[in-house]
Amino acid sequence: MYYHDKRLQYPVTVDKPDPRFARMLQQAIGGVEGEIRVCMQYFFQAWGNRAPTTKYRDMLLHTATEEIGHIEMLATAVALNLEKAPASLQPTASSAR
After folding, report:
1. Are the C-beta atoms of residues 19 and 87 closer than 8 Å to each other?
2. pLDDT at 95 over 70
3. pLDDT tens digit string along 9-59?
């Protein structure tokens, strides 16, 4: 079971919207080494743990849950970097690789 608090673990602020940076942050969320992959790895390790005690399973589940918080902070940063960004920056963001 999860509890959502609506407050981020750490505040996310953006001084100036930057769509190119938002694109890079998206890689940190769902890229090859992204937070979602790491989160799922911890969940699968926890669910597959068949040890007689739940100590390690609980540790893995807590770690996976913390990763969800990282995803939420990164997703908020992406949204803030796209919010009110001038249309003139859109072509540079889409061509960044």
Report:
1. no
2. no
3. 788 899 999 898 999 999 999 988 899 999 999 999 999 998 888 999 999
Taking the domains of the chain in order of start, what are their residue ranges?
A: 19-95
pTM for this predicted structure: 0.80
Type of residue at 54: T
Secondary structure (3-state) at 49: coil
Distance CA 55, CA 19 (A): 42
pLDDT one-digit tens code per residue, 19-29:
989 999 999 99
Alpha-carbon 32 to chain mean position: 13
Q: How far is CA 53 from CA 48, 65, 71, in A?
A: 13, 20, 29
Select the CATH number that applies to the domain covering 19-95 from these four: 3.40.1130.10, 3.40.50.10260, 2.40.30.170, 1.20.1260.10. Answer: 1.20.1260.10
